Amino acid sequence: MSPPLNPPFTAVVRKVRRLESVSYRVAGLWKLVSHKLSEECLRHGSIEDFKALLREESPILRVLGLICLAKSVRPEEFLTIAKPLYVDRAPVRITNGCVLNRSVTVGAIAEQLAGDRFFLAAEDKSPATQILFYRSPKGVHDNDYTKQSLWVMGADGSSPR
Predict the structure, then answer these.
(1) Given the DSSP bridges, would you call strands 22-23 and 130-135 parallel, antiparallel or unpaired?
(2) Are 94 and 102 in contact (CB under 8 A)?
(3) What value does the mean pLDDT of the chain take?
């Protein structure tokens, strides 16, 4: 695939193409591809550029295209665009320091983005009221997942359970 003729957008694509994994931080999918790179892509690219990313060999670039399209088109249009990618089984390695190191498919990300109305419709967004996290007992190494438990608490730190 030949790169778009838009030099700033092409520079962002080059940076993302070099990534071997993506970071999953507190904000979830929006942080899958560096927030800075996602914002640059949105600022310099067009809807046609984002659609072209869906045909890239790199699964991370396809995810970037999905994220940018989800932020750029109506939810109904995004669903039409994303649905063919539900069968894309290319793995995307997700890391978060030493705590998280797993893979998810491009198809699973496409399905999650299409189903997440809060992500797709800016007018539906509301501030987070709860935080979901894993907790390890004292003395247990962080990546022994068999010992961890899933907790929820208020965004202000209240009522952990």
Answers:
(1) unpaired
(2) yes
(3) 76
